[in-house]
């Protein structure tokens, strides 16, 4: 296939010395968890995040506050609030902070909102990623890792997705924007030998999870005894990946330089919506009030990651069983939100109840 023809096995031995890592989107769900892990092992992080209002900004602000308070020493957490497309800001960061590793997690996420407002996806995802690759080349970055998405497989016929799959049929502007990032990443590798890897995450959930995504929504609705929407008959199945597994995969990719590679990061196992809702009820300890809705355009009925390549190249293996992940997430929700008024997105207002991301 295409990706095989242009790449050979290029992993070098893991480099686990001290790093200064630029984490874009570090106020968000995955970025803040990656930053926390890097800090915990002694690396320093430089975070850029515009803290947009795609979901409650208080969540993102408290993620940054948590990192800063946990690592108050000078130089551990450097935070810039701004747009990754802002050339002056970004150039200044590369000049003064000199990060040699880039973990690019900033993006507009969400499938359905991208159908309503495609231009913000083109801006943050395509222009933003190009801006970062341009500067990474200019300032001699050692390794650039960026978030792609399982949604690139959306238009594909198979149900068990490997990186070999043809992904030329993105079915939403979000998916197309991620595919565009993968193409541009190849270009930057080809032109400038930038070491760059794209990670196709499969529906990520866990503590600090996004309130616009099904795992958070289900736990939230069931906890509060509020009606929740189930799209389709419950037989649709998805590969849900617990956040610590994703962090592990991201960091493994940062630690090993590759020339140009794409990797699936998932659990490698599908769970049906029916089973998922059952486990939420069990671990929240309440019954769900379900409203069944028709399937949504852009949603795929089944996703399951083939994670063999990530295992072979990175030693990546998912460790958290689905039920354990739901148990931990429900517990986190309880301690975080029990007595607070949760600000949830009203349906149809940007935060669509999308299963995909
Ligand atoms: P998130 O929305 O919690 O985090 C993204 C962060 O990026 C936000 O804090 C946002 O403010 C910031 N951001 C967006 N555009 C920006 C810009 N132009 N400049 C600066 N900051 C900007 O989302 P997440 O779930 O943590 O996702 C992280 C990455 O993983 C994204 O690239 C997303 O597309 C990808 N992804 C996530 C999932 C998932 O299940 N969560 C699945 C597949 C791919």
UniProtKB/TrEMBL annotation:
For this protein, the record's Pfam families field holds: GDP_Man_Dehyd (PF16363)
InterPro entries xref list: NAD(P)-bd_dom, NAD(P)-bd_dom_sf
Domain NAD(P)-binding: where? 22-329
Q: Does the keyword Disulfide bond apply?
A: no
Q: Does the keyword NAD apply?
A: yes
Q: Which UniProt keywords apply?
A: NAD
Q: Tell me the protein family, please.
A: Belongs to the NAD(P)-dependent epimerase/dehydratase family.
Name used for this protein in its record: UDP-glucuronate 4-epimeras-like protein
Instruction: Record the organism.
Output: Fragilariopsis cylindrus CCMP1102
Print the organism lineage.
Eukaryota, Sar, Stramenopiles, Ochrophyta, Bacillariophyta
Q: By which gene is this protein encoded?
A: GAE3
């Amino acid at each position: 296939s295409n990706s095989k023809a242009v790449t050979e096995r290029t992993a070098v031995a893991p480099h686990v010395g001290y790093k200064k890592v630029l984490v874009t989107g570090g106020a968000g769900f995955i970025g803040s968890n990656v930053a926390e892990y890097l800090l915990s092992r002694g690396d320093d992080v430089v975070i850029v995040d515009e803290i947009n209002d795609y979901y409650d900004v208080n969540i993102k602000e408290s993620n940054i506050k948590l990192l800063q308070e946990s690592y108050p020493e000078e130089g551990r957490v450097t935070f810039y609030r701004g747009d990754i497309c802002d050339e002056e800001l970004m150039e200044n960061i590369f000049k003064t902070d000199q990060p040699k590793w880039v973990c690019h997690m900033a993006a507009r996420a969400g499938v359905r909102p991208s159908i309503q407002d495609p231009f913000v996806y083109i801006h943050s995802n395509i222009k933003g990623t190009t801006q970062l690759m341009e500067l990474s080349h200019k300032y001699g970055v050692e390794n650039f890792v960026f978030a792609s998405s399982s949604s690139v497989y959306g238009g594909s016929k198979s149900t068990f997705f490997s990186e070999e799959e043809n992904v030329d049929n993105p079915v939403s502007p979000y998916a197309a924007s991620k595919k565009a990032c993968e193409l541009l990443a190849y270009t930057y590798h080809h032109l400038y030998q930038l070491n760059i890897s794209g990670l196709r995450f499969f529906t990520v959930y866990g503590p600090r999870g996004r309130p616009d995504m099904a795992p958070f929504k289900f736990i939230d609705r069931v906890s509060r005894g509020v009606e929740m929407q189930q799209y389709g008959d419950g037989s649709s199945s998805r590969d849900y990946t617990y956040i610590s597994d994703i962090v592990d995969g991201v960091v493994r990719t940062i630690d090993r330089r590759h020339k140009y590679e794409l990797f699936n990061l998932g659990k490698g196992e599908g769970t049906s919506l029916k089973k998922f809702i059952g486990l939420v009820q069990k671990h929240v300890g309440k019954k769900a009030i379900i409203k069944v809705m028709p399937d949504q355009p852009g949603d795929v009925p089944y996703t399951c990651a083939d994670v063999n390549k990530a295992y072979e190249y990175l030693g990546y293996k998912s460790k958290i069983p689905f039920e354990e992940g739901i148990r931990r997430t429900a517990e986190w929700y309880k301690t975080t939100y029990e007595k607070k008024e949760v600000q949830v997105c009203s349906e149809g207002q940007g935060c669509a109840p999308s299963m995909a991301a």
